[in-house]
Write a structure and sequence with these properties.
Elements: H1 12-44, H2 49-98, H3 101-107, H4 109-134, H5 136-151, H6 153-200, H7 202-207, H8 211-237, H9 239-264, H10 269-310, E1 338-345, E2 355-362, E3 367-372, H11 378-383, E4 393-398, E5 401-402, H12 408-413, E6 415-418, E7 427-428, H13 429-433, H14 442-451, H15 455-459, E8 468-469, H16 478-491, E9 496-500, H17 508-519, E10 526-530, H18 534-537, E11 542-547, E12 550-555, H19 557-563, H20 565-574, H21 576-587
Parallel strand pairs: 3-10, 3-11, 6-9, 9-10
Antiparallel strand pairs: 1-2, 1-4, 4-5, 7-8, 11-12
Helix pairs in contact: 1-2, 1-4, 1-5, 1-10, 2-4, 4-6, 4-10, 5-6, 5-10, 6-8, 6-9, 6-10, 9-10, 14-16, 19-20, 20-21
Length: 588
């Protein structure tokens, strides 16, 4: 929680004024029993109507001033709490955006969402309540005890016994419930995770008629959440009745002790009422304090979870280039544009390597095709180029420089990435294309749209570039989304263009036109094409064949057809007539 308090520094004035106005309210509230004692002893006892009226007006003034102080305190507390949560949420979002893919995968999307929404809301409520009541309640409790001592020491000794008992109850329950609230939030993460999974996969669930199974699974998770909430709620619920028992027992003792003192003539009736009122004030404030403790307990548990996200450090580690890194030359002494130098990758928590000993060089302007079976590591390979995942062995060099020694902005600005899943954001076609280049002109946008074979998509929409795009591009077909995501990457005119199976929804004719347009790109762009289709990468300058995380072949289509069994098998599985033709020629 201490780490999070720095986000309150811009609200120092509000954080000071809110408790001060609450203390002002508390001061006037402590005056009320004395005024009531005066009304009973002097006004009613002495039958002095004027004194009753005078003290009644005094009570009214105290009430008005207390109300104004309370409203002012609430205003400043709310302003500080909302401002704090706004800055904290923005800082958390910025931190998450800076994490590499490994850390995001490890933490999980659902828990990140919970911590940015529910957890921060709980912390906001905690800050608000602390600023309002954390000083006020103790001041009322100890102030009432002190005021009771000024009236009668013997009666006030009951306060000395009651208050420590109440403190033990309140703080004991707080220490008991704090870890339980963490468990509640963890169960909330699980419910959010399964909810997100079911909503995104609703079509698959219905297609396989798994509604009942998913309903049961969701019910199990929600029951676990309800059980944990009920259990901790029962413990927290103990606080109010126990505090009432202690305080009401103290009031009984006060009335008994006060009655004896009145009979002895040591106390007046009004003073006994004042002492009882002070005990009642303590009861009210301790009930408030008990609720405050519950809120603080939740807030602290949530604050620990939020701080846990801030403690996740970005896994990329900058280091000096290895000696001899500039000595990797091609024939003629030219530094290769991109080098995979015996690169390996092991995902965090994985038992085995996903990629092993990737070793190849790429010239600037080349088109590199990557093909292989499902799970062979194609996407993992291209995700290493922009540094989404840190290599666990070897090095990747761009123009002779290890990419781990390049800043994120420098590297990402040179790479245009089109991921497997076409993702568009709510807005317009124009705003989505500007993700590639913020100051892109319409001419640059249309040029990228033409290259991506998306002109008919854009021109077919009302408003063209200013046509609305729904969240995640739900108002577009799969092929339309893919073409627009390719156009978004092309707008920035990257040095390296990565198409990670991003044309899978395109028909063969459109795919062929796209590949032809990519070959004519200006600026000598190096293109990586990941595809399951042999036809898509057949004419690439270089084809990398992957098999279970290892390179099974490297070369042109013709070379691989002669020398690579894995590539030949993939090709013939897609073109069986070619297998028959090859078999006939071999038979001759």
């Amino acid at each position: 929680m201490k780490r999070l308090l720095k986000y309150l520094k811009d609200y120092k004035k509000e954080s000071v004024l809110a408790p001060l106005f609450k203390l002002l309210e508390a001061f006037f509230e402590l005056m009320v029993p004395l005024v009531m004692a005066s009304i009973i002893d002097k006004g009613i006892g002495g039958q002095d109507t004027g004194h009753i009226v005078k003290m009644g007006l005094c009570l009214l003034v105290l009430a008005v001033i207390g109300l104004v102080a309370a409203v002012t305190a609430q205003f400043f507390a709310a302003k500080a709490a909302v401002g704090f949560s706004t800055k904290l949420r923005q800082a958390l979002f910025d931190h998450i955006q800076g994490l590499n893919f490994t850390n995001i995968d490890k933490a999980g999307t659902s828990t990140m969402i919970t911590r940015m929404t529910s957890d921060i809301n709980q912390v906001q409520s905690g800050v608000n309540m602390v600023l309002r009541l954390f000083l006020r309640s103790p001041i009322i409790v100890f102030g009432a005890m002190i005021m009771a001592f000024t009236i009668d020491v013997k009666s006030a000794m009951i306060f000395v016994v009651a208050i420590p008992l109440l403190a033990v109850v309140v703080f004991g329950i707080m220490m008991w419930t704090m870890p339980l609230y963490k468990k509640v939030q963890s169960n909330l993460d699980k419910v959010l995770g399964i909810t997100r999974e079911n909503l995104t996969g609703v079509r698959v669930i219905r297609a396989f008629h798994k509604e009942e199974e998913e309903e049961k699974r969701f019910c199990d998770y929600t029951e676990a959440l309800a059980d944990s909430q009920t259990f901790v709620g029962k413990i927290s619920a103990i606080m109010n009745p126990v505090t009432y028992i202690v305080v009401n027992g103290a009031i009984i003792a006060l009335i008994y002790c006060g009655a004896i003192q009145v009979n002895l003539g040591n106390l007046s009736q009004g003073e006994v009422i004042a002492i009882v009122n002070y005990m009642s004030q303590i009861l009210v404030e301790l009930v408030k304090l008990a609720n405050l403790i519950v809120t603080i307990t939740k807030a602290l548990a949530c604050a620990d979870r939020i701080a846990g996200v801030f403690e996740i450090e970005n896994g990329s580690v900058l280091r000096e280039s290895e000696e001899g890194s500039a000595d990797h030359k091609m024939q003629g002494g030219e530094i290769p544009f991109l080098v995979f130098d015996h690169v390996s990758l092991t995902y965090a928590g994985a038992g085995a390597e996903t990629l092993h000993d990737m070793n190849f060089e790429v010239r600037k302007g080349e088109t590199v095709g990557i093909i292989g079976g499902t799970g062979s590591g194609k996407s993992s390979l291209v995700n290493l180029i922009p540094g989404f995942y840190p290599v666990t062995g070897g090095a990747i060099r761009l123009n002779g420089t290890d990419i781990r020694n390049m800043s994120e902005n420098e590297l990402r600005n040179r790479v245009g990435m089109v991921p497997q899943k076409a993702v568009l954001f709510k807005g317009t076609i124009r705003s989505n294309l500007q993700w590639g280049k913020e100051d892109a002109t319409e001419e640059e946008m249309w040029q990228a749209i033409d290259t991506a074979q998306a002109r008919e998509v854009v021109e077919g929409k009302i408003g063209k570039l200013d046509a609305e795009v729904a969240q995640n591009g739900k108002n577009l077909s799969g092929g339309q989304r893919q073409r627009l995501t390719i156009a978004r990457a092309l707008v920035k005119k990257p040095e390296i263009l990565i198409l990670d199976d991003s044309a899978s929804a395109l028909d063969y004719a459109t795919d062929a036109k796209l590949r032809a347009a990519l070959r004519e790109l200006e600026g000598n762009t190096t293109t990586f094409i990941v595809s399951q289709r042999a036809s898509t990468i057949r004419h690439a300058d270089k084809i990398i064949v992957l098999d279970d995380g290892e390179m099974a072949g490297l070369g042109t289509h013709d070379e691989l057809m002669k020398n690579c069994d894995v590539y030949r098998e993939i090709y013939f599985s897609q073109y069986p007539e070619e297998r028959l033709k090859a078999a006939k020629e071999g038979g001759r």
